[in-house]
Amino acid sequence: MFGETNGTRRVGPVTGRVGLTEPPPRPGGAGGDDPSALVVEFAQRTTAGSLHAANEDAICCRPSAGEALFAVADGVGGHEDGAVASATALDSLLETWGAGATPRQGSPLKRLRGAVERANLAVYDAGQARMRTTLTVSVLGPRTVTTAHVGDCRLLLFRDGTLLQLTDDHNLAARSARYGLPSVTDLPDDPGRRLLTRSLGQDPYLRIDTLSLRLRPGDIYVQCSDGLATLSGADIIRVLVRHAPIAAAERLIELAQQAGGRDDMSVQVMWVSSPALRQRFDSSGTTLQQSEVLRGGVV
Length: 299
Description:
Elements: E1 10-11, E2 15-20, E3 38-47, E4 57-64, E5 67-75, H1 82-100, H2 108-127, E6 133-140, E7 144-150, E8 154-159, E9 162-165, H3 172-178, E10 209-214, E11 220-224, H4 233-242, H5 245-258, E12 265-273, H6 275-278, H7 290-293
Parallel strand pairs: 1-4
Antiparallel strand pairs: 2-3, 3-12, 4-5, 5-6, 6-7, 7-10, 8-9, 8-11, 11-12
Helix pairs in contact: 1-2, 4-5
C-alpha cells in the first residue's frame, strides 16, 4: 500500500485545497452552501537527511468530503528498519480511516484514537516489538482540528502573531526540561532528543496524547518531524508570513538544512481561511497580506 512516490515517501497530493463543510443533514440537504464555511489550503514535503541511507520519515494526507487528515511518522533509527515502521503505521492509519469514513461513526477524536491504536498494533506485530516509529496525525474538520500524538513529531499553530507548539515531545530531553534540567533549547545536540519515552511498536498498549481545538480563519498549522528542530520560532514565523503553503514547506526544510540539520525532514503546512479571507490574497496567489490576517507581523 504505502510506497515511495518518486522517492518522496508520500501519500496524497503535494498541495491542494479542501472545503471544510458540514455534511448535509439529509439527502438533498445543503451542507456545503454555508458562506462562512472554512477552507484549508495545504502542502506537504519530505526529504532524506545525511544521517541515514534512506528516508525513514513518511507523510500522508487524505482529503475527503468536509475534512482532511494529515499525518507524519518518523521511523526510529537504531531499531529494525525505521522506514518499514513509519510506512506500516501510515498504511494502517489510512486503511482504518478509510474504512470508517462512510458513514462516519463516532466523534473525530474517538475515530482518530482508534486508528492510532490499530497502527500501533500493526507496527508491533510487524516487528515483534523490534520496530519503532513516532506518529502525529491531525484531522481538520468543519469547525475543529483534532490531533493524536505519540513521539517527538510536532504540531505548531501560528495564530494572532504567536507561534505555539501544541504537542509535547516524548523524549528524555523534554522530560529533563520539565524538571528544571538543561532543555533541548539550551542543548540542541543533547542526545536525549533521540531517546524517545513513547513510540508506536514498542508495546501493544499505547498512551496517546490527544487534543481538539476550534479552527479560526487565519490559523496556520505546521506539522513536522523532529528534523526541523534546528529552526527557531522566529525562523518559522518569517517563513509563514512570507510564503504560501508549498513555498513555505520547501523553505522550512531548506532553512533547517542550512542550520545544520542532518536528519530526515518532513513538513505539512495547512492554512485555514474563509471566503472573505481568500480575498486578501494578492494577484499572484502566493503571498498573504499579513497586515490584517497575521497581526503580529514579522518577528
